[in-house]
Amino acid sequence: MDLPLFYAKDILPSAKIFTLDEDTSKHVIMVLRHHTGDAILLADGKGYRYRCIITDDNRKRCLLKIEQVDKMPAPAPACAIGIAFTKSASRNEWFLEKAMEIGIQRIVPLLSKRTEKDKFKMDRLESILISAMMQSQQFYLPTLSEPVVFDQLVKQDNTAQRFIAHCLPAQKTYFGDALQPGKEAFILIGPEGDFTPEEITLALEHGYQPVSLGNTRLRTETAGMVACVLMQSVNEAG
């Protein structure tokens, strides 16, 4: 059976012992009912896996002895998505959870002309990612940036493969066919109501390829999920 995994932001690879914070200690000792001598895993979100033994099962300050530290291989190539969040917090959180489980490495909240939501509780969003990282037994926490204005982003990003998914009638390639496996990829997903024609033109002028995600019109978070799945599946197949 897999050992339970917990997040420890401040742990260092050189550490020999570590004390869990009060909330995690309570969960480990009171909820999961672990005791002195039990083994657990810690992740720092930077790729390190720590195998630990509980040496003091104090419910407020659980003390661990670190037995083994391993650097897990980083996902390659890096896949990233810029997405205009909706006004529904639950829909945004659902997307973040699933993107983390799939293995997306960078998420950029996108402020386009039609974006419905431009302020976020970043602590809450980061906690969603952390929870999904532990649930999916991964060791790299995606980068979640502060919201970025569309024009600024498309002018500055230099990812090897850059795409924009939009709904306007135009010559577009299916995203799964446009992707080249083994190369970093970044896709932009628009808000409800899509990107404006001016935004699409600007993206194309800066090297973004126009792509389709299928024959049906998708909600923002669904489009984001389809894009994430396609990026991962193409790279795994390649």
TrEMBL record:
Top-level EC class as recorded in UniProt: transferase
InterPro entries in UniProt: Alpha/beta_knot_MTases, PUA-like_sf, RsmE, RsmE_MTase_dom, RsmE_PUA-like, tRNA_m1G_MTases_N
GO CC list: cytoplasm
Main localization, broad class: cytoplasm
Name this polypeptide is given: Ribosomal RNA small subunit methyltransferase E
Source species taxonomy: Bacteria, Pseudomonadati, Bacteroidota, Chitinophagia, Chitinophagales
Reactions it catalyzes: uridine(1498) in 16S rRNA + S-adenosyl-L-methionine = N(3)-methyluridine(1498) in 16S rRNA + S-adenosyl-L-homocysteine + H(+)
Species whose genome carries this gene: Chitinophaga costaii
Positions of the Ribosomal RNA small subunit methyltransferase E PUA-like domain: 20-67
Domain spans labelled Ribosomal RNA small subunit methyltransferase E methyltransferase: 79-232
An annotated Gene Ontology molecular function: rRNA (uridine-N3-)-methyltransferase activity
Similarity section: Belongs to the RNA methyltransferase RsmE family.
Entry keyword annotation includes Signal: no
